[in-house]
Amino acid sequence: KYSGISRDEILAKRREYLSPSIYHFYKNPLQVVEGKIQYLYDEKGRRYLDAFGGIATVCCGHCHPEVVAAIVEQTKRLQHSTVLYLNPAIAEFAQALASTLPANLKVAFFTNSGTEANELALLIAKLYTGNQDIISLRNSYHGNAGGTMGTTAQSIWKFNVVQSGVHHAVNPDPYRGLFGSDGEKYVRDVEEIINFGTSGNVAAFISESIQGIGGIVELAPGYLSAAYSIVRKAGGLCIADEIQAGVARTGSHFWGFEAHGVVPDIVTIAKGIGNGIPLGAVVTTPEIARALTRRNYFNTFAGNPVCTAAGLAVLRVIEKEKLQENAFVVGSYLKERLSALKDKYELVGDVRGRGMMLGVELVTDRQLKTPAKDETLHVMDRMRELGVLIGKGGYYGNVFRITPPLCFTKEDADFLVDAMDYTFSRM
Ligand code: PMP
């Protein structure tokens, strides 16, 4: 039984005491007071199937008992800063994390968020290469601090920060992009940026493996490996932002970049790796990591015992419960069923993504690809009434983002698609 303050009181307090820039989903905002694996509960005890929580926090499911136990046990024993004394949690987690990554990607710097991880990755790349220019993709999201807001390339997520030295390459978006699915053509833009927009040398190229906030945009085939080789010729490092696509989410692979056949120089990780606990990481090679030994580098909470104990528990649960395989099997099934809606409703312009990172783009005109923004909001609202929570994204706000906990079942997938189908049928 929920005994907290009422919805209206929370709203009033938010209006008075919280940042005016925070926003909430739904016209009539939802209060969630409890979570259990793939379900969330509101203050009245109503249950919702959570098909979006995977992105923000949960890959093992809300309040997964093993992850909770690891956090509680470590909290009771010790919670402290990481840096000054030895503690087993951080060392064990660093080793376990390295074992999931290919090649010599084995040295971790921990952070408290994705933004911090990308900021640090950009700094390391600049220090290591001695270069300053950064290339990121249009439509990307990499964070909201000084450097990362510059690399983020969607005006809706940017303030007028100084972003000198950052170049935004044409997005290899197979659905809306200038060159369709022709990865090679998009890569020429990276070449032109280097040749005509820089000294010929760059510090880094940073990209998500599947763009998340940008609306679950997969990169055109062949793009990433060709872009990596051009950037490396210009002396730059390749950074894979795995903050959304990593940690088994894409199903076919543990890391999103693996599906592109590339090995990055730096990988950034956050969100799902902590299953709700603030935990991020930059993982790179021992050689590149040495760049950060030139000065003191200190981060009070990064990699603290409680957060790294959570991270280790997350990796164990993913393995034990075969969550990557589940993301592949159930994710493929879910995508198939969502794709069938495209044949049924003109409104569905595109269905895309991998594993449990799926997008459904709504358009009012398939030829013109006119974003169906109002319809997207309407369907989200209606699905919430039917007990299913999904997210949205994309520059035009017309893409459903379906990113459930990795333990989502086939029955959950059916319930979600049936609710969406029913909603479309009544419009
Ligand atoms: N990179 C990507 C791909 C993200 O989606 C996000 C967050 N949405 C970030 C970086 C920033 O992470 P955080 O919000 O933890 O700072």
TrEMBL record:
- Name the PANTHER family for this protein: ALANINE--GLYOXYLATE AMINOTRANSFERASE 2-LIKE (PTHR45688:SF13), PTHR45688
PROSITE patterns under this entry? Answer: AA_TRANSFER_CLASS_3
Give the EC number(s) listed in the UniProt record.
2.6.1.44
Q: Which CDD domains match?
A: OAT_like
Q: Does the keyword tRNA processing apply?
A: no
Alphabetically list the UniProt keywords. Answer: Photorespiration, Pyridoxal phosphate
Which prosthetic group or cofactor does it need?
A: pyridoxal 5'-phosphate
Instruction: Give the similarity note.
Output: Belongs to the class-III pyridoxal-phosphate-dependent aminotransferase family.
Molecular function (GO) terms for this protein are:
alanine-glyoxylate transaminase activity
Q: What class of enzyme is it?
A: transferase
Cited InterPro entries: Aminotrans_3, Aminotrans_3_PPA_site, PyrdxlP-dep_Trfase, PyrdxlP-dep_Trfase_major, PyrdxlP-dep_Trfase_small
Q: Which reaction does it catalyse?
A: glyoxylate + L-alanine = glycine + pyruvate
Q: Name the chain's protein.
A: alanine--glyoxylate transaminase
